[in-house]
Amino acid sequence: MNSIQVGSVVLSTQGRDKGMYFVVTDVENNAVYLADGGMRRLASPKKKNLKHVSDSGVRLEAIAAKLSEGKKVFDSEVKSALRIFGQQNQQEKQDV
Description:
By secondary structure, this protein is an alpha+beta fold.
């Protein structure tokens, strides 16, 4: 069963964006649409095969709620949330 849903933070495992974190903006049958607020804006998300992403287990609830309700989400919100997630993830790796 697939746990990736709108608002999930995923890691790209294939392609030129390998190793980068993205937020899922939409889910289709075998693909997800990804945005990072920087190179990949919410206005033009990247379509990526589910096999080419790895779920981090984190869901950005505030962004997910806005996306599902159809409210305006700013690229700066996504970029900031991913930056904070990356810093926390990096700190956890250093603590281990």
